[in-house]
Amino acid sequence: RSIEYLTNKLVEAGVPVMQPGGGHAVYLDAKEFLPHIPVQQYPGQSLVCALYEEGGIRSVEIGSLMFGKYDDKNELIPAAMELVRLAIPRRVYTQSHIDYVAEVIINVFKRRNELKGLAITEESPMLRHFTAKLQYVS
How remote is the C-alpha of 29 from its chain's centroid? Predict the structure, then answer.
């Protein structure tokens, strides 16, 4: 019920979220949330950073940082989707916790045009999303 409740609150505010809400996580559509950030600048990771900076909300990018590959010219082959996953364990968070998460996401959504893309400054050849270093694009 918490997932469904959070999804519905976000949809009511116009936040692009995968539907129907249910299961154990809410998935924000970062590509729609931040259409001004090209996939080569990792909109999902930009959103992850904004949620943490705004309200201490931890989430994970499931998009081109995690699943993107490079072609033979070292150009990014983006992932099929740019999502941000907010996993919510059962019986851990109260209603006020879920309301707080919704409030933070909606606040970030309202100022989404201020968010910037990211560039990788350092990455490992395998599982780069765990250890990559990024910086904001000017």
Answer: 7
